[in-house]
Design brief:
alpha+beta, Beta-lactamase, 14 helices, 13 strands
Length: 384
Amino acid sequence: MPIDGYVASEFEPVIDAFALNFDERGEVGAAVCVYLDGEPVVDLWGGLADATVGLPWRDDTLVLVYSATKGVTAICGSLLVQRGALDPDARVASLWPEFAEHGKDDVMVGQVFSHQAGLPYVEGEFTLEESLSWQPMVDALASQAPIWEPGTKHGYHMRTYGWLAGEIIRRADPQHRSVGTVLRDDVAKPRDIDFFIGLPESLEPRVARLVPPKTDLRKALNALGGDLLLARVFSNPGGHFNYDDMWNTRALHAPELPSSNGIGNARGLARLYASCVGEVDGRDRLLDAATVACATEERASGKDEVLLVDQSYGFGFMLGRAFGAANPPTAFGHAGAGGSLAFADPDTGLAFAYVMNDLRFDPNGDPRSEELVRAVYRALEPGS
């Protein structure tokens, strides 16, 4: 499979690891990008953006990255923290009074961003249209009771994270802008970053077609019984959601789902995370060192009540090896369903992003991204 792009000489082994994903692991289409000390050292792409028509992956191909979006949302939240508009230790109800219903008056902003709020699903029956609309979702979450005492446990708020964190950001922002607007105006456009939460229709032709997994995950989880919290969270709200062709539609690309439907490329994600740990193109850091230290302070760790595995969360970020076996312990970022991965490593000044369109769900981890990360860090070793 032809591979295109650029690699600095010391990172040439990353080309081999990327090629092996196609040659031995059945990769369809993908891209990987690495920044080191504010400079791109790896920027590769290859394969097919749309396997149904043989459309090649190009340098400007975009792809939906599922929960890697959460890390981008966390960056927008951290930017407001840095500006003094948002306090992780403030009560959510101080910004969003309606949220105080059913004993939620003492829930802290940081607890919401670290999946401790006890609101991993939206209660009630909703149409798909309502489930993709902002106000019905935030109103429902504000009015419902948590399923555990906030702050006592953590459990992955798979989709509700986006509405909860997004509404907090909207209310904290002096102009009351949505996450997607903050991202576009304050982060992406000024720094030449291709990443969108709420994709403009004009960019649809650049979006790669996702290849759904062969296993129907919603059906498989439901077969395990109604008591499994993950099964309820997975398809919520309304039981409408699954990793299938619904995510290849304009209906899923257009709205703002700050947990789930960010669309961009590896170059944009790596550039974004690089700007969180250093200067890029001579521009000041997006997030200063104190803000990154606050954002990456561990707020929740141990067994996740939804995912049923150990997890570690900061202020919206996954931390260390909890979201990638090959990650360095100092990594902060987020993985996405199907295999996408993006993070920064403050200790080395490195930022990494891998995106793809063939969705895989391996409980033992995704070897495609892990081998790429290993190749990158081997290149950093003395004498390599």
